[in-house]
Amino acid sequence: MSEIQKLQSEGGEFWEKMWSEGHTGWHKDFVQEILKNHFSYLTSGGQSGLSVFVPLCGKSLDMVWLSDQGLSVVGCDISELAAQQFYTENNITVKKSTKKKFHYI
Question: pTM of the entire structure?
Fold first, then answer.
């Protein structure tokens, strides 16, 4: 079994382990400069009231920055731990509910 196949078979367990052990070298503790530099272009001149979807978001600070710019932000990640850390670190209160196999936070 290749490394890719092994990771795919582990699914969410692999990513939860990475977050719980702090193996998150991809996570940055700053807002991406390229996002700031091109925000006006991405939002047709800096309009507020727009929505943005951030897939594989982890606990990206880009989401807080986007929200601060007036956008409605929806992030999605396989790691519930990453989401919990994001909420805690940014003082965000959430309500969690579960329907079938899906968790809505």
Answer: 0.78
